[in-house]
Amino acid sequence: MRAYYLNGTNGIDSVQQCERPDPTPGRGQVLIRMHAVSLNYRDLMVAQGQYGAPAGGGIIPLSDGAGEVIAVGTDVTRFVVGDRVSPTFMTKWIGGAMSAPVMSSALGGDIDGVLAELVVCDEHAAVRLPNHLSYEQAACLPCAALTAWSALHGPRPVAAGDVVLTLGTGGVSVFAVQFAHAAGARIIATSSSDKKLEALRGVGASDLINYSQHPEWEHEVLRLTNGRGVDHVVETVGGGTLPQSITATAVSGHVHLIGVLSGGQLDPLSLMTRKTLRGIMVGSTEEFEAMNRVIDLHRIEPIIDRVYAFDEAPKAYEHLASSSHVGKIVVRID
Q: Which residue has the higher pLDDT, 331 or 103?
């Protein structure tokens, strides 16, 4: 089969195409012919050796993809040949709370990922795709969509009438706008580009802030909420903007920390008004299936910025690194 592997940690130059033996499914496993994959900022960090422990030599990158089951091993009961599926981001997180063994089962970092023609996984580490989505659209769900879902549907789920703040126009942020809109929330979105902000308006954002024009955007959020602040912040940037996000959050509001794009310092006193800071790391198979039911019900469609051919995968990385995209960047494998 054709695949890509990481030859070192030299960034995009490390992403190289290769030939590997076709895998076969063992007991309880399914063999998936991948049709499309999508990229996350994490994939750039893995290629640069900046995401946790260095990936093993020759690892297949990327965590997010969609394809068709073409063979099943013995004792498989969840799927049959012909089912349209996505492997899950963390192959050992079926349900319940996160654990250390779960954290070491992430595709494209700890173990081989999905930038290949064929992928084998345990039947419990895959989910069916929403029927209305193409393979390219469904390939956007396992990390970006599920991360946004986990943020907004955790211990204090987003509710109709809540106010949600999103930062930027990457995949997680766009999905957060779509999920918050489906829940009946008011969405305040930020970006440095008016054109990108208008794209967010198109998927449900009602209030738009250009942070190039309002560098202290937290005060603009407070103005828009009459000084109250928001109920949820989907914080996709990191420590550099975290103090602003906390300031923009209402008393007893929640800041869902996802991004690691920038460092910074946090004043603990800023959380003393019963604001909750919660770290998010994707989600379980059970959460993935719950999210897909809502995507199916509301006919939500991922926003794709551009689709690349398989041989153009390094160019997809370059596009991601440019930060010029709105939504997701996809590689078609067919």
A: 331
CA distance 225 to 127: 39
For residue 212, count other CB atoms closer than 10 A to its CB.
Answer: 12
- The alpha helices in 53-132, defined as continuous H runs, are 100-103
The position carrying tokens 């349209």 is: 84
How many whole angstroms separate alpha carbon 135 and alpha carbon 84?
8
What pLDDT score does 103 carry?
85
Please, where in the chain does CATH 3.40.50.720 lie? 147-279
> What HEC string does 182-200 produce?
HCCCEEEEEECCHHHHHHH
Cα–Cα distance, 323 to 189 (Å, whole number): 17
Return d(Cα 280, Cα 1) in angstroms, integer: 34
Domain with CATH 3.90.180.10 in the chain: 2-140+302-332
pTM of the model: 0.93
Q: For residue 6, list its beta bridge partners.
A: 15
Cα–Cα distances in angstroms (integers) from residue 86 to residues 12, 80, 90, 94, 261, in the given order: 25, 14, 12, 14, 27
Q: Residue 21 gets which letter from DSSP?
A: P
Question: Which class is domain 147-279?
Answer: alpha beta
Architecture of domain 2-140+302-332: Alpha-Beta Complex (3.90)
In this predicted structure, the answer to whether residue 187 has a pLDDT above a threshold of 70 is yes
C-beta of residue 53 within 8 angstroms of C-beta of residue 47: no
CA distances 229 to 9, 76, 162, Å, are 41, 49, 10
Q: What is the pLDDT of residues 60-84, one digit of tens each?
A: 999 999 999 999 999 999 999 999 9
Residue 104: the pLDDT is 86
